[in-house]
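This section describes the prediction task in plain terms. A model, or a person checking by hand, is given the sequence of a single protein chain and must write out its three-dimensional structure as a string of tokens. No templates, partner chains or ligands are provided. The sample shown here is typical of the held-out split.
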Amino acid sequence: MLKFLIKPFVALALVLFAASAHAAKDPNDAEGTSDHPEVPRFPGYHIDAATHNDYNEFVFATKGFDAWSNGKGDTRAGKFWEIHYVINDGARVPSLVEIINNYDNAFKKVGGRMVRKDPQQGAVFVVPRGSGERWVQLDIYSQNYGYALDIVDVGEMAQKVEASAGEMADAIKKNGFVALHGILFDTGKATLRPESEPLLTEVVALLNRDKGLRLSVEGHTDNVGDKKSNLELSKKRAESVVRNLSAKGIDLRRLKVDGKGDTVPVADNRSEDGRAMNRRVELVKF
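The expected answer:
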């Protein structure tokens, strides 16, 4: 497939195709699939298959293809989409040039450019996107009855696991506690957010590898709100963590709950970065 970069796509969605400003979701789309949120499909096609990764690498065919049809050229990493489209029954089949030129014209309007054009297969585009870029590879196949987009919104990987069980064990051995910022809650509530699960799983691994370890789970907040409410919230958040660990098989006799509210800041509460550092869960050995 081919690649491209993109920029603010609000305008692009309006000008991508002469026949249709924005091709909406099709009832024939495979279940659970969707377009890239800012890259419309060519009208008359439905999604046959799609993959979306929060982070992945892709080799864009800026230098063509090898003997096994693998792309040769530039590797980019970031949020990744691979979407395969198939023409709807009875729909007009566009020419290869029509598909390529529609995408090319749309990307040019937002400052994009074509990096490579393959007259037999598709094209690679790069479009500015805020302070970064988006790469898209367009591959057209089966006599234009199908085409695919490989899209990378170039960016750094979001670290999903703040600390491994081994790293937490080292910190506790050295300092007697470890501070965790990756255990997240809904704003103003004690409800654990789903993205906390990888780190909670590591806490379980920490406790399972050292059966003698006992931990006080201590909640901390920033100073937004009154002190009494922050104290209550921090304790409820610690209780939510303990319930989660217990549900994963950890003996409650090895855990204690404590809430410190905003009484033990580790950073300046006058800045958002400082408040984010103060919102944490600490595991303290006892």
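For orientation: Helices lie at 10-15, 96-108, 165-175, 197-209, 227-247, 272-278.
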